[in-house]
Amino acid sequence: MKQLIIVLLVSLVLFSCKEERKQPKEELIMYQSSEMAALMNAMYEGNMTIKDKILEGERIGDFPETYLNIHNAVLTDPADRNASFEAFSKLYIQNMQLVYSGSKDSLKQNFNQAVNSCITCHKTTCTGPIPRIKKLLIK
Ligand code: HEC
């Protein structure tokens, strides 16, 4: 019984330490929801749908104009919107538009290129979701 109480006390202390510990920046980015985080999640879902359509040989429709909000959506940390972020987001949009306007033969290749430009930007800003984003790639 005494041991049990000690175990409980220790876990209580550990738990409260964890609560109070300052989270590293990356974790903070992952758990707070910003306009940009919401857009990112929408792009993730949208591209998962496109991946399935490509695999099924279905039409993918038109480029979702909402993706252009990457140029002005508010970030969790507004300082992340620097010159390199702007450059990577332009490249990403170009690649994504090519998925919708390019030839059917290069659809899979163009799609993977667009997903890789998600990953390229994430390597510089927010590495946490990279393993998840890689699941979008068509093998
Ligand atoms: C130009 C850089 C850039 C590009 C391109 C980019 N991301 Fe992000 N992504 C970020 C940043 C920065 C955040 C953190 C956003 C925030 O917290 O405000 C983020 C956050 C995320 C998140 C986590 C959202 C959350 O709930 O916290 C996911 C998932 C994600 N991106 C997926 C994607 C996918 C999928 C693509 C491509 C279709 C993509 N990203 C393209 C920079 C980028």
Description:
- The protein has one domain (23-134).
- Helices cover 65% and strands 0% of the residues.
- It is globular, with a radius of gyration of 20 Å.
- Mean pLDDT is 86; it is low at 12-23.
- Helix 4 (83-101) packs antiparallel against helix 5 (107-125).
- The protein is built from six helices and no strands.
- The chain is mostly helical and 139 residues long.
- The protein has helices spanning 2-20, 25-31, 35-56, 83-101, 107-125, 130-134.
- The chain binds heme C.
- Heme C binds at residues 29-30, 34, 36-37, 40-41, 43-44, 47, 75-76, 80, 85, 88-89, 92, 117-118, 121-122, 125-126, 129, 132-133.
Detail the poorly predicted runs: 12-23
Tally the helices: 6
Number of beta strands: 0
What summary fits the major beta sheet?
A: none
Radius of gyration: 20 Å
Beta fraction: under 5%
What is the terminal-to-terminal distance? 55 Å
The SSE string, one letter per element, is HHHHHH
Task: Provide the domain count.
Answer: 1
Task: Describe the global form.
Answer: globular
Give the proportion of residues in helices: 55-70%
